[in-house]
Write a structure and sequence with these properties.
- The longest helix has 32 residues.
- The chain contains 12 helices and 13 strands.
- It has 303 residues and is of the alpha/beta class.
- Helix 6 crosses helix 12.
- It folds into 2 domains: 86 residues, Winged helix-like DNA-binding domain superfamily/Winged helix DNA-binding domain (Arc Repressor Mutant, subunit A); 194 residues, D-Maltodextrin-Binding Protein, domain 2 (3-Layer(aba) Sandwich), CATH 3.40.190.
- The model has no long low-confidence stretch (mean pLDDT 90).
- The strands form 4 sheets. Strands 3, 4, 5, 6, 10, 11 and 13 form a 7-stranded mixed β-sheet that branches.
Length: 303
């Protein structure tokens, strides 16, 4: 039969202290209980481990060998316990976050930086992908908290607005639309081939939803690219107009590399949201990061 760990600890202490009584005191048990436990250990192993005399207790030759083995078992157990504690500490000091591209590039770094200034031990892993995949990662438990820019959130996820954004129709300065004095109509935009993000992108979903709401038909992609940076570069190079977050093109608009074109009859405003598994309360560093995002955007008093 396998010896129990407390009996092994008792045996090691008897060898170190030379007394069953002192070993029992060290473990916080009565001496008769310690004697019974040692006798039970000897029966399990079929060996005499301790010589009991009036002058005290000493390990037998077999007892010394078994005690050496027992000490190694207990040392390995300590390694296991310490390792598990280290894993718990590491897990507590890690925050897994996923964010859509606009949030990841323009907002999340500031939020994470503020949290890290308060929590210098915190390691944050950030996955950057489109809004649809962010929701998938949250749903599967692969991340603790997500940030999306899509106009809809799956019903099984909880959501909280953390910022607002607006999409803008942008063209290079030499494009015909840059010289228009009259605003485009939603129908004009729907009839024009556009450089767009891939399906699942929150930016694309917001644009498609706005076009459907305006009842002017579906968008016509001239190119479908996997990142905001790629779309922006394609527009600058003359591939066609695009609809992008003003957060992503603010510098280009200020410095004249891109021109914003006004569109009548199309609502391109959107909310940026934090998402997490429905029915769960955010705890720990995930809750702290959400609080930072809400404060930064002035939504910390939102319901």
């Amino acid at each position: 039969m396998t010896p129990d760990l407390e009996s092994l600890r008792l045996l090691v202490l008897v060898g170190e202290l030379g007394s069953i009584g002192r070993a029992a005191t060290k473990l916080g048990i009565a001496q008769p209980s310690a004697s019974k436990r040692l006798a039970s250990l000897e029966r399990k192993l079929g060996l005499a481990l301790v010589d009991r005399t009036r002058r005290g207790s000493a390990l037998t030759p077999d007892g010394r060998v078994v005690t050496d083995w027992a000490r190694r078992v207990l040392d390995e157990l300590n390694v296991l316990v310490a390792g598990a504690e280290a894993l718990r500490s590491r897990r507590a000091a890690e925050l897994r976050v996923a964010a859509s591209l606009t949030v990841a590039e323009h907002l999340a770094p500031g939020w994470i930086g503020e949290l890290r200034r308060a929590r210098t031990d915190l390691y944050v892993g950030l996955v950057v992908t489109n809004s649809s995949l962010v929701c998938d990662l949250v749903r599967s438990g692969e991340v603790d908290l997500g940030f999306v820019e899509s106009p809809t959130v799956p019903a099984e996820l909880s959501a909280r607005r953390v910022s607002t954004d607006r999409l803008a129709v942008v063209v290079p300065p030499n494009h015909a639309w840059a010289r228009r004095r009259k605003a485009l109509t939603a129908a004009d935009l729907a009839a024009t081939p556009l450089v767009v993000r891939e399906r699942g992108s929150g930016t694309r979903e917001t644009l498609e939803r706005a076009l459907r709401k305006a009842k002017v038909g579906d968008l016509i992609p001239v190119a479908e690219l996997g990142s905001t940076t790629a779309v922006r570069s394609a527009v600058v190079d003359g591939a066609g107009p695009a609809v992008l977050s003003v957060l992503a093109v603010d510098a280009d608009l200020s410095e004249g590399r891109l021109i914003e074109v006004t569109v009548d009859g199309l609502d391109l405003r959107r909310q940026l949201r934090a998402v997490w598994p429905g029915g769960r309360r955010l705890l720990g560093s995930a809750a702290e990061l959400l609080a930072v995002a809400l404060r930064a955007s002035g939504f910390d008093r939102d319901g």
